Amino acid sequence: MLNQRFLARACAALALLALAACNGSAVVTLTSTASTDNYLTYRVGLASVQLQKSSNGGTAYQVLPAGTTVDLAKLVNLSDVMGSVALPKGTYGNVVITLDYTSAEIVYDNGSVNGVALTPLGAGGQALGQVSLTLDLDPSNNFTVSSKQASWLALDFKLAASNIVNLSAKTVTVTPLIVGSAAPIDSKTVRIRGPLSGSVNTSNTQFTLGIMPFDFSSGGAGSLVVAPTDITTYEINGTPSTGTLGFTQLGALSSGTMTEAFGTFTATDTSDTTDTTDETDTTTGASTADETDTTTGTVSSSTNVSFTASQVLAGSSAQGSGFDRVSGIVSARSGNVLTVEDGTLLANNGSNTFLTGTATIDIGANTAVSTFGEGSPQSNATPQISVGSLIDAFGTAATTTAGNATLDASAGRVRLGNTSAWGMVTGTGTTTGTGTTTAIGSLTLDLTQLGGRSVQAFDFIGTGTSVSFDASASEYQVSTGTLDLTNSTVGVPVEVTGLVTAFGQAPPDFTASALLDPTTINAEMVIDFGAGTPAPFTSYDTSQMVVDITNSSVGPRHEIQIGSQVISTSGMSSDPTITPNSSTLMFAIQHTVSGTVENFNEYSNFITQLQSELNGSVLVTGITAIGQYTAESFAFAANSITVTLYN
User: Fold this and answer.
1) Which one is predicted more confidently, 376 or 603?
2) Dist CA 416 CA 472 (whole Å)
3) Distance, CA of 610 to chain centre
4) pLDDT of 416-452, one tens digit each?
5) What is the CB neighbour count within 10 angstroms for residue 122?
6) 3-state DSSP call for residue 628?
7) Do 190 and 29 meet the contact criterion of CB atoms below 8 Å apart?
8) Does residue 320 carry a pLDDT above 70?
9) What is the dihedral angle through the alpha carbons of 215, 218, 220, 222, rounded to the nearest 10 degrees?
10) Residue of 100, 98, 106, 47 lying closest to 72 (CA atoms)
11) Closest to 523 measured CA to CA, from 482, 492, 545, 546
12) Is the peptide bond before 508 cis (omega within 30 degrees of 0)?
């Protein structure tokens, strides 16, 4: 069985090819954390990502052999592998990242059809070019590379802490904040994108991908081995399949075929106990003792990661093979004409363009339709594409005026993905299906966002069985099936994920496969302090932080967002208390002048360091936190906290 072969080799599922005997590898991923300010695109240059053993310099190991571009707005729900670099074993304490804002495209979602383009500025109001950050990784949770093993380094760009939007001036003040950790910092799906390297290994059910992240043509370092299972779904050149059949079809593709694998990393704690000799850094000639932290003299444990693929796209289903691709959210449909505002055009030649205007997509009876994650093809399925559908449309593109494009997909394909919908609950219901005792739930939402953008951009004409049943943002009907609605009561925010109803067949308007309520939605606290304050807290210690919301330096952003609900801290009767929760933890202290970021996985270490730095003269300019908020007790249980200092 395919799954048996996978299990037998799970420990070796992720490995850098052609490693020297005493080397290991660092697999580096990048994601982003959403902001209370919503962006339609946030494209910046990623000029360089380097790993170093210490802040004193020395050999820098490049994760990106050449600069590339990344759209951070597209990484809010995804973690992308940007490289897997071969390294001499040892402990690496620093990451140096250089961003380039010279040609940045940043578009803010203000509710209009095409949003507002923002000009990025530095803290002093100057035009922004290249900006370098030095990430000091948590010394108590060393990022250690072991021989013949792969270690995972997770990076996260904090959009809220990095940007302050001025809509009237159409500018955004940028002080980039990226955090890094040797421990997993979220549970997002991980994507590996790149060309097939060599032939697919049918004997041990693995395949190897080069790394070409972010849907751009510049590659990251190294190659990775990917292990599917017997329930992995595939879409290869437009044809969906599952398990052995899909893997066999993948094996028929030639080396160099563009492929994407979606799945999860599994980390296994290990120690290299058999190899105790010193190793030589072939770049510098320096000798590094096996697994020894040269700062503390202690032996560090190591982590080996493996990758399990749940979905695979290959050939023209990923990119190329004669097809151009437009990706985005369907904002309107008229007959067989789809409208996508602010989409992305990935051309057959590899060029990647953000469309600042409208993409018009023609579909027809010969347009094949598939759904991401489903292993069987659909027939006569073009009605499944409706307003609010997240799509990848494949066909022949032509650019009309600046920012606009057309795509003829009448003989091409459309792939549907899950859409998210945010709203406040205005009604609930339960029905029992014919011949069954299973209760089927439903919610009515006052919708604020669909597919990650404001609902004002959508035209719901034609979505219903008649005009009177067309979807309405103020009364959006969601079928929730057997999902738990205990905490989804009237007046609370929810986020549902699933598929919109087929065009012309609403109500309901949406079928949810997952639901987040106030107890599970990630709330975000953002408080700016303008030019800064030396005392942002009424108290802070190793158990909690109490934010002083009456501080005279509090700036225009001072709110807690829970899905579609926004709570201003200026109206609170008590200062909010931030405590660490029991899930994955990530804390950071940003220094805007020096461009350094101190990272911590332990709250107590974070607070101890913060207390040593807030000496009465150092100013705090901002605080952000991610977690769950309980309004009744003004309690914020955070899994991530960042504090920005002006020094």
Assistant:
1) 603
2) 22
3) 28
4) 999 999 999 999 998 876 665 677 899 999 999 999 9
5) 15
6) strand
7) yes
8) yes
9) 110
10) 106
11) 492
12) yes
In one-letter notation, the amino acid at residue 68 is T
Hey, what are 614's tokens?
Answer: 């807030």
Length of the chain: 647
Burial class (CB in 10 A: 0-12, 13-18, 19+), 125: exposed
- Helix, strand, coil abundance in the chain, percent, nearest 5: 10, 50, 40
What is the pTM assigned to this prediction? 0.91
**Do the Cβ atoms of 565 and 493 come closer than 8 Å?**
yes
* Residue in 287, 270, 271 with CA at minimum distance from that of residue 279: 287
Sequence-distant (6+) residues with CB within 8 A of 68 are 45, 46, 213, 214, 216, 218
Query: SS3 of 126, please?
Result: coil
* 578 vs 560: CA distance, rounded Å: 12
Residue 348 CA, chain-centre distance (Å), reads 25
Query: Which pLDDT tens digit goes with each residue over 241-287?
Result: 999 999 999 999 999 999 999 999 987 765 544 343 334 333 333 33
Q: Indicate the pLDDT class of residue 567, thresholds 50, 70 and 90.
A: very high
Kindly state the DSSP code that residue 299 receives in the 8-state scheme. B
Segment 19-29 shows an average pLDDT of 75
Give the mean pLDDT of the chain: 89
- Find the helix or strand (DSSP H, E) in which 361 lies: strand 358-362
